Amino acid sequence: IAVFGKTTGRAAFAVFQGGGAGSWPNVWNTANFVNASRYVAYLPPIGLAWYGDGSALILGYATTNLTTPKYRVVTMPNTMGGEGNANNVGGSQVNQLQVYREAGTNNVVLLASNDLGRLVSQRWTGLAWESQQVVNAYATYASNQYFDFNDGMAVYGGNDNRAGYRNLNPDTKNWDAINSYSLDIGGSPRHVRYKASSRRNEKTLVTQDNLGVISVQTWNGAAFGSSQTVTGSIDVIATNDFKRGFDFAYESETGDALLVYSNNSAIPQYMTRADGAVQWGAQMPVPDWPGSGTPLWIRLESNPDPDSSQAMLVVMDTNFDLFGAVWNGTNFVS
What we know:
Elements: E1 2-7, E2 10-15, E3 46-51, E4 56-61, E5 70-75, E6 79-80, E7 84-85, E8 94-101, E9 108-114, E10 119-124, E11 133-136, E12 147-150, E13 153-156, E14 164-167, E15 180-181, E16 189-196, E17 203-209, E18 214-219, E19 224-231, E20 246-250, E21 257-261, E22 269-273, E23 284-285, E24 295-302, E25 311-317, E26 322-327, E27 332-333
Antiparallel strand pairs: 1-2, 3-4, 4-5, 5-6, 5-7, 8-9, 9-10, 10-11, 12-13, 13-14, 14-15, 16-17, 17-18, 18-19, 20-21, 21-22, 22-23, 24-25, 25-26, 26-27
């Protein structure tokens, strides 16, 4: 497990190793601090992804007033290499940044938006960054995590009422020539999450827009369809649309989908969708929730074990309290 955390102006990295109890070698060692001074709204532009055979990671981050993302190669067990420069993304500085492993290869894809809202990609091949490519040249809303990448497809929001998407040509740095679009959701996507099913050629796109609406639509291998509004209750008046009040995951074993979100109450809500189904089930509250504040940030990750139906939920609320719960395939347990 790799962890990259940020404090004011600095960031630190640590790796958990071994089975059973494991260990945290050199936890938060001062040698592992980097100058990651840039942040926009509530999001630090940092990214982390394994590459190759899993013996190393790429750590990407941004520094104030620089248009070039910074990176370091982290070699196991916990050796952080020197700081390097990726390629210039334009504008006057980097706004948001994420790093993703490219499926089926040993490469890593870095996506970054600049302060003009343009989305730029570049690919790490294990030795160097290939030249940058513009994924979306049109100005977009850059204060939120408005893009995601999965299985060769980048999906991104903007000031249009649809999410755009492009496909990365296999084993190249180049994207297809056409900006395609998802279904109209009635608002501009501010946060985007895009994940693939473990069981079929299907991906799910969940967006949170500037009107406080969370919408879901499904990619069937050829196009997006089956759009469904989950809630319109994210409080945009209090700028809570700056935070990501949702997340979802596919169960590894079954392919069933689980979506957790805020409806501006003190209890996070959830829906499930069976593998292969089109519509989501009824809204349900996460049971025995101990928090009293409104959920602002939600993270949900499935257990990668192919025989597991578990998922881990973590929520930060308006009281800055952090809570967790485990999904066991049927319900949430504390």
